[in-house]
Specification:
It contains 4 helices and 5 strands; from the N terminus they run E-H-H-E-E-E-H-H-E. It is α+β, with helices and mostly antiparallel strands. The termini are far apart.
């Protein structure tokens, strides 16, 4: 696993926005490929959670990473499924914009990779 987000974990408290910054979801998705485990760990989902125990319902032996490079997951107990962004939404109860912004910050994307809203 790379040290992409190896600095101190980012806060899981809601971001107080003074202005709206929107990252391009396609660009962020592409940059996040193959580093989702680092991103999740940095944003409050320990990698130990990703080996059978669902981070949402906490049931053992139900959670599967179907494609770790794209963050695709499924829980056979609570039926949640999705990509790396969705896992952060379920686990931290963030909305889509906040997840996208936090992943963009974790990846240290620059201004040219934003779309201003």
């Amino acid at each position: 696993m790379s040290n992409l987000c190896s600095q101190a974990p980012l806060s899981t408290t809601p971001i107080k926005k003074k202005f709206q910054v929107k990252y391009d979801i396609n660009y962020v998705s592409k940059k996040a490929e193959n580093v989702w485990e680092d991103i999740w760990d940095s944003l409050g989902i320990p990698c130990s959670c990703l080996s059978g125990k669902c981070p949402q319902c906490k049931q053992l032996h139900t959670f599967q990473l179907l494609d770790a490079s794209r963050g695709i997951f499924y829980c056979s107990h609570c039926k949640i499924r999705g990509n790396g962004f969705a896992l952060l939404q379920y686990f931290n109860q963030w909305d889509q914009d906040e997840v996208l912004e936090r992943v963009g910050r974790c990846l240290r994307l620059r201004d040219k990779e934003f779309i201003y809203g």
